[in-house]
Amino acid sequence: MNTLEDFINAIPKAELHLHIEGTFEPELMFEIAVRNKRKLNYQTVEELKLAYDFNNLQEFLDIYYSGADVLIEEQDFYDLTWAYLQKIHAQHVLHTELFFDPQTHSSRAVPFSKVISGIHRALEDGREKLGISYRLILSILRHLSEESAFQTLQEALEYKGWITAIGLDSSENGHPPSKFERVFALAREEGFLTVAHAGEEGPPEYVWEALNILHVSRIDHGNRSLEDPELVAELVSRNMPLTICPLSNLKLKVVRDRINHPIADMLEKGMMATVNSDDPAYFGGYLNENFLEVARALSLSREQIVQLAKNSFTASFLDPDEKRKMMEKIDRFYQLNPV
Ligand code: ADE
Ligand code: ZN
After folding, report:
1. Domain housing 230
2. Which residue of 29, 48, 122, 278 is surrounded by the most CB atoms within 10 Å?
3. Can you give the CATH number for the domain in which 217 is found?
4. Per-residue confidence (pLDDT) for residue 338, from 0 to 100
């Protein structure tokens, strides 16, 4: 257990920022497209992969939504989720909190029930057969209307027991968190936790709005918080988790270069930063590759990697007893595998 790769691979860890539609690997995409008699805009897996070259969030989202178009049946959502769980099982991810985007599918007349049933069935199989615990987060597409968000939340109420939190994703600029103030108020009234993508491309004001208007339990990304010292102080005083996605930030040009990734600065300032993969099929790596990326680029010590693994459980929606057990697992691992 001497190499950095081995250490990162074996340390127990959790994933807190993962879009299940973003785990759609090209090979499975083609298989499901054929099964559902749908045409993709690309002839081959290689041709599709060549298109994964983005200058910003929107260029990525356009390809991500068109890939998701071939998902139609409950079994498709099962297969997508099961493939992801097998991947993270091999990476020693013990817990995952994943987003799904029901409006991406309801806009194509795929019923909410099929989407959530397929995902949930796979997650339950993952829990039983692979020992991976999970929480499910319904994410609202912010480029769509408040009315569409309300309708989606209404549909979710029937599946309340399966969903822990309501999130906010998609095109950030021009769609501030305040656009969904009333939707998130209802979500909280109904007992859901809330999270929101903020400060990925959008300004620090959007992070303030996520905190003070949507009353989130976590900020997804939050990179641009560093531009506002008052906001940094607020995030530190609240011990507010930020779900940072290193490879995503590079692929979407949210950060200029790898050695200037803000996560080191965040840890130094005492922020509760975590490492995550966002859309691994599109950004070149799952959780281990994201840990490895920051560990190498920022020359993180083993101690800092242990801290990030611990943060992943601290910032999770597991209950305190489950969190304590995970901390003990990490401590035991570190005792057996010192530098
Ligand atoms: N949906 C999937 N990935 C996303 C990201 N990185 N930002 C916003 N919306 C997304
Ligand atoms: Zn995301």
Report:
1. 4-336
2. 278
3. 3.20.20.140
4. 84
pLDDT tens-digit profile of 227-278? 999 999 999 999 999 999 999 999 999 999 889 899 999 999 999 999 999 9
Cβ of residue 278 lying under 6 Å from some atom of ligand 1 = yes
Q: Among the bound ligands, name the one nearest to the CA of residue 278.
A: 2
Task: Please tell me the total count of domains within the chain.
Answer: 1
The tens digit of pLDDT for each residue in 70-100 reads 999 999 999 999 999 999 999 999 999 999 9
User: For ligand 1, what atom is nearest to the CA of residue 248?
Assistant: 6
Angstrom distance (rounded) from CA 142 to CA 173: 10
Cβ–ligand 1 distance for 79 under 6 Å, the answer: no
Q: How far apart are CA 20 and CA 31, in angstroms?
A: 17
Based on the residue annotation, tell me whether 200 is a catalytic residue of this protein.
yes
Atom 4 (ligand 1): residue with closest C-alpha?
170
Which ligand 1 atom is at minimum distance from the Cα of 21? 2
Query: How many helices (H) and strands (E) would you count in the chain?
Result: 17, 8
Q: How much of the chain, in percent, has pLDDT values that exceed 70?
A: 100
Cα separation, 207 vs 221, whole angstroms: 10
Q: Calculate helix-pair angle for 320-336, 302-314, nearest 10 degrees.
A: 160
The whole-number pLDDT of residue 1 equals: 63
Are 194 and 220 spatial neighbours (Cβ–Cβ below 8 Å)? no
